[in-house]
Amino acid sequence: MPGIALLAGAEADSTRLLAALRTLQLPHYQYGLIGVDAGLVAGWAGHAGYPIEVIRFPDGWAALEGAIYGSAPDVVVAAVKRLGHTFSVNPTEGRDAAERWAASVDGDFLLVLGAPKRKRLLVVGDPLGRLGVFVRRTAHRVALAREIGFFRALGDRMDADRLAYAQVLAIGWPLGNRTLLDGVVRVAPGSSLLVDLETSEVSQRTYHQWDFEGMQQSRRSFKQCLDEVVPAFVETCAAQARWAQGRPLVVSLSGGLDSRAVAAGFKCANADQTTVTFRDAVGDNESDVAIAEKIASVLGVPWRRFQLDSPSWEERERLIALREGLNYIGASHMLQFLEHLRDALGIQACYITGDGGDRILPDLRPDRRLRNMSDLLEFRFASPVWCPRAAAALVGIRESELRESVRSELGSYPERSMEYRALRFQVMERGLHFLLEGEERNRAIIWSMTPFYVQSFFRAASSVPSRLKVSHRFYSAFLHALSAPSAAVHNAEWHAAPGSPKARVRALLQKAFRSLPYSLREALRARFLSKSHDAPATEDFRGRLVGLAKDPAVLAVFRKDALDGVALEGCSRYQTDVLASLMIYSRLSSNVREALIGAHEDGKHEQKIQSASQLHN
User: Fold this and answer.
1) Which of the listed residues 533, 550, 585 is the one where a domain comes to its end?
2) Is the C-alpha dihedral spanning 48, 455, 492, 499 positive or negative?
3) Same domain? 204 vs 223
4) HEC string of 233-278?
């Protein structure tokens, strides 16, 4: 668990907070206290490469977690001090000023302002919620943390949110502010929390709302958009390189578009980088490896390959414990890869990914006309992990309850048209809930960032009208502008270069394929387009699932008759991976979790933080 955690209110207890932090330790971690006062105790945990800074001011303190890009460190510290002073004097003006500041800077960050003598606390995340933060309120205490496991580690009884489980089974992740624990909610992107330390009252408000329909009303030409977006991307890469201040820049390179765009962007920014690629145990990504090596060669940047072993069952369990069920076990191999990078390149290395490129540069509007909310709902359920009926039955809720929860979330979006609500779902739900959890997994081991989700670039790219992005037209031009040689290399999945005639034909065929009825699509996929995750689970894996289905903790969440009725031989590996992930999570307890992710290293001891200079930043 890297990041900030705190307890506020009458039951704020430093002993309990430190005990919870200790439970959540990973090897290479340190932890300690930020402040201990009546009604407010705050602490932190993280590895030596994880950025946290504590700044003191009269009547309180500020904790800044994460990175601010494009601003000098002394400028950031001075701004945070001013915000802290303003907040301690006047909470209304301080909150307004902190929100304005958060909306005006680029970064992946969380700002916490504590004014315990004034009996108040302010928490402000960045406009995209890049560092997820969770909160739970009881009668006499507010608990807030960057990791959900902190709430269980406090020792409170925590019940499963069955509706969130059903959403994961059907969609792949919990929607909106839900988590797998009832009463623990995700703080929305672009929002702030004001906490009264005497009453434990929490006031949450949104200071920034992304409206993808509103942003795309521009009538700019294709060239005007390209001339704006390309230099903005290069400057974003340069800003991230400046923030790193000599730390090794490690760019994850595959055979796709997003990672090559990042490598090309950092090359254009004249930033030293090492590109890295893993080869999985069975060689399923062999084409990615070959193309990544070729891209690195044409860019003239160093490239390293890391060989991975098949993840063990214990590694799968460790991933579930690490991210509290919000990563699924199909990504277990990433733990090996990240640990290889940390060991080879150092704990201070910055791992840079192409996350988000596929969310904001292609056209993600639906391929069919959606006339109303019912059409949008059916469109969302057209390609489920588990069909809504099965997902609901597995955890013992009504299918109508699951469907209504998705309808309610879609209905809360600011976009008016169904077309742009569907686009928002892809960008903000899948991109900043499901995919963000992969980044959070990375940060637990090595600091991770992506230029695509830096707010100013995200805004510029999202403002390009979708009509200009059809069939990857804009993305292809973007890549060619960054590096024509790397753009000419085939995409590993397409077997064609971006923008080539073959790629354009493929895009048209893909659009036609997606418009087919679900049953026909799945039949064609199974016959002609199957991938490794479409294959049935192995016999050994199915045996593990059968064993899990007998565990009392699993049966406290899942219905035994529904589990017994699942024909595992006919399920895809992805379906069984998602089901197994939830079953593993449902049986975790704080003691089990501690054993899974590793005890704190020998010789580590509690560290009370007295000043910002004692924190890594």
Assistant:
1) 533
2) negative
3) no
4) HHHHHHHHHHHHCCCCEEEECCCCHHHHHHHHHHHHCCCCCEEEEE
Residue at a domain's end among 533, 553, 583: 533
Assign residue 204 the CATH number of its domain.
Answer: 3.60.20.10
Verify that 225 and 237 share a domain, yes or no. yes
Both tokens of 145, joined, read 């943390």
Q: Which among 5, 2, 25 has a CA at the least distance from the CA of 606?
A: 25
Shared domain check, 136 and 218: no
> What pTM was computed for the model?
0.92
Instruction: Report the SS3 class of residue 43.
Output: strand
Q: Is 111 helix (H, G, I), strand (E, B) or coil?
A: strand
Q: Which helix (H) or strand (E) holds 8?
A: strand 3-8
Query: Residue 112's closest CA among 90, 131, 128, 93?
Result: 131
Same domain, yes or no, for 193 and 298?
A: no
Q: How far is the C-alpha of 120 from the C-alpha of 143, rounded, in Å?
A: 14
List Cβ neighbours of 131 (8 Å cut-off, separation of 6 or more): 3, 65, 66, 108, 109, 110, 125, 146
Range of the domain at 292: 212-533
pLDDT tens digits for 346-392?
999 999 999 999 999 999 999 889 999 999 999 999 889 999 999 99
Contact present, 28 and 45 (Cβ < 8 Å): no
Give the total number of structural domains in the chain.
3
CA atoms within 13 Å, Cβ hemisphere of 286: 5
The β-bridge relationship of strands 350-352 and 29-37 is unpaired
3-state secondary structure string across 435-490: HHHHHHHHHCCCCEECHHHCHHHHHHHHCCCHHHCHHHHHHHHHHHHHCHHHHCCC
For residues 28 and 346, what is the distance between their CA atoms, to the nearest angstrom? 12
d(CA 424, CA 407): 14
Task: Please check whether residue 608 lies inside any domain of the structure.
Answer: no
- Nearest one of 334, 402, 328 to 576, comparing CA atoms: 328
The answer, yes or no, to whether residue 611 has pLDDT greater than 80, is: no
The reply to whether 311 falls in a domain is: yes
Residues 140, 168: Cα–Cα separation, whole Å: 31
Residue 107 CA from chain centroid, whole number: 14
Is the domain of 501 the same as that of 552?
Answer: no
Helix axes 313-322, 573-586, angle to 10 degrees: 60
Task: Encode pLDDT of 562-605 as tens digits.
Answer: 999 998 888 989 999 999 999 999 988 534 444 445 433 333 33
- Tokens describing residue 31: 């932890």
CATH of the domain at 286: 3.40.50.620
Q: 274 and 188: one domain?
A: no
Q: Do 261 and 343 share a domain, yes or no?
A: yes
> Residues for the chain: how many in total?
617
pLDDT at 506: 83
Mean pLDDT confidence for 325-350: 96
Residue with structure tokens 């960032």?
A: 449
- Average pLDDT value for residue range 59-71: 97
Question: For residue 145, what is the enclosing H or E element?
Answer: strand 142-145
* Closest residue by Cα to residue 504 from 477, 524, 531: 477
Q: Which residues pair with 55 in a beta bridge?
A: 62
More confident residue, 453 or 540: 453
Q: Indicate the DSSP class of residue 569.
A: G
Is position 612 within any domain? no
Q: Is there a single domain that holds both residue 524 and residue 564?
A: no
Alpha carbon 24 to chain centroid, angstroms: 19
HEC sequence for 282-315:
CCCCHHHHHHHHHHHHHHCCCEEEEECCCCCHHH
613 is a domain residue:
no
